[in-house]
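Inverse folding, one chain.
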């Protein structure tokens, strides 16, 4: 058993960074710009897993890990599922490093600091961090390969996506697979095990067949974590313990843990109380062609379109957000759960010509046919902007599948 737990390791990161010398390499590990639970936990957990592996190998490499929560510090409260998991894992959230912390921005911008970058849950640096391209040395992801950072190859480039489908439902599955190869590991730290398990269950919707997100790799990761985690060391308050743990086995109840996290994330009142701008940015990603043109954004929102557009000033917020994000086409992918099954819709908003060309492509292209989109309504927002509302028949068509289709359109 390692003396350094997941939570104590993360708490010590800021002091480790402060002690960096000129000869020390700083390995920045960061998730994608949406900063969802998978991005946050995969970054933090990979850092700890690498630490365990480095300790076992007794390597002489002088390297300090900087796991990054890839959103601004004030935005963590909007990621309720990730925040809950970190609390249950005993992680001191105040000690974590965030995208807008001076510690990160200073190291990222200082050419004199030796550094490397590991990308988790994405394989292309966001546009405002492109200056770090030459420092990217590793990619761990389950989205379509955007063919960037091509100097990263072989075992350093692990992208679990093939033939329009993810080969793993979660990047945390890939982190768990690395953990599974550690022959010196006798048991998994409780906080680490709970964090990884919780995200995999969330991302696969507890291996729901209807959602179609879970794979054999996810199931093997779940089984490993359930069997090998030191659950007896998990410190939970009694209320939470009663909600997620099986009293007979003292192991997590998979369905209860999933539902507890899911309900925190899908809470309708939480989404209804949110300002339109926050609803759009809470899980947003920007996409552009390899050449850097035709950018568009995709926001994932856990609220049906009707409720979303009923928010006061919704379209004013949309136009302001699009201007801030520097895109003239925005897709809002909505999802709600009905009888434990996902239902999806798409709201496309953009400059009239571009939005209508994209609409035509989505309705007629063979590449988009699997989404089973049915156009419901088109509405002029102003003289230049239109919104198009679709019902989506295929509940398995998440942003992971929609983004490559839109990228391929060149619209």
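Residues assigned per position:
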């Amino acid at each position: 058993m390692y003396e350094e737990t997941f939570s104590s390791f993360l708490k010590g990161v800021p002091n480790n960074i402060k002690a960096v010398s000129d000869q020390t390499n700083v390995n920045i590990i960061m998730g994608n710009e949406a900063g969802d639970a998978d991005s946050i936990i995969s970054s933090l957990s990979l850092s700890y897993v690498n630490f365990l592996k480095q300790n076992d190998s007794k390597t002489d490499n002088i390297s300090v890990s900087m796991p990054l929560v890839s959103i601004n510090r004030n935005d963590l409260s909007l990621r309720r599922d990730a925040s809950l998991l970190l609390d249950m894992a005993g992680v001191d959230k105040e000690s974590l490093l965030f995208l807008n912390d001076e510690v990160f921005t200073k190291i990222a911008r200082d050419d004199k600091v030796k550094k490397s970058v590991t990308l988790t849950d994405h394989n292309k640096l966001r546009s405002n961090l492109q200056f770090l391209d030459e420092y990217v040395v590793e990619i761990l992801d389950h989205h379509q390969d955007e063919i960037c950072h091509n100097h990263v190859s072989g075992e350093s480039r692990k992208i679990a996506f093939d033939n329009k489908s993810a080969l793993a439902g979660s990047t945390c599955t890939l982190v768990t697979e690395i953990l599974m190869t550690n022959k010196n590991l006798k048991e998994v730290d409780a906080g680490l095990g709970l964090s990884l398990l919780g995200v995999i269950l969330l991302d696969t919707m507890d291996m729901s067949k209807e959602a179609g997100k879970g794979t054999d790799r996810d199931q093997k990761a779940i089984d490993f974590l359930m069997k090998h985690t030191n659950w007896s060391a998990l410190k939970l308050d009694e209320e939470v313990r009663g909600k997620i743990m099986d009293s007979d086995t003292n192991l997590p109840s998979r369905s209860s843990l999933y539902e507890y996290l899911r309900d925190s994330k899908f809470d309708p009142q939480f989404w209804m109380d949110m300002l339109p701008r926050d609803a759009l940015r809470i899980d947003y990603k920007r996409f552009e062609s390899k050449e850097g043109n035709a950018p568009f954004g995709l926001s994932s929102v856990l609220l049906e379109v009707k409720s979303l557009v009923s928010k006061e000033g919704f379209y004013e917020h949309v136009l302001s957000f699009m201007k801030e994000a520097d895109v003239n086409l925005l897709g809002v992918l909505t999802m709600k759960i009905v009888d434990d099954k996902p239902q999806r819709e798409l709201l496309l908003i953009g400059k009239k010509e571009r939005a209508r060309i994209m609409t035509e492509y989505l309705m007629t292209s063979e590449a988009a046919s699997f989404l089973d989109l049915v156009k419901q309504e088109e509405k002029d927002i102003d003289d230049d902007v239109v919104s198009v509302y679709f019902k989506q028949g295929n509940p398995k068509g998440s942003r992971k599948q929609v983004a490559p289709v839109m990228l391929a359109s060149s619209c």
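Residues 37-57 form the longest helix (21 residues). DSSP finds 15 helices and 14 strands in the chain.
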